[in-house]
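Example 113, ligand zinc ion.
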Amino acid sequence: MDDCIFCKIANKEIPSTIVYEDDMVIAFNDLNPVAPVHILIVPKKHMTDILNVEKEDMKYIEAVVEAIQKITKEKGIAESGFRVVNNCGEDGGQTVKHIHFHIIGGETLGGMA
Ligand code: AMP
Ligand code: ZN
């Protein structure tokens, strides 16, 4: 999709620090990390948010889960634990309107507010 920053990252039109990639998803370091490990997993198909994933596109969500398993092992946080965050919509604080999942870890995280 034109003018979508995460589509541009997926298409390598703008640079990012890629930590994982397969046919379905790309994962890269968040520009403004909130913890020692802060990675974004982005489906390569443009979908606005978790409310707008069509049935035939659920395979992308499966790919996200597989990527989480691989990346957290690779980063050494699978055992210690981590958080997966998906912000949706205005109250959820979603700033980029292309569905993405944050992997946050590498330290003991504070409790959810
Ligand atoms: P959200 O608030 O869930 O929409 O999160 C968007 C995230 O994307 C924020 O944590 C930003 O720091 C991150 N972000 C925005 N632009 C970039 C970029 N070009 N490369 C990496 N991360 C980015
Ligand atoms: Zn997009």
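Summary: The chain has a mean pLDDT of 97.
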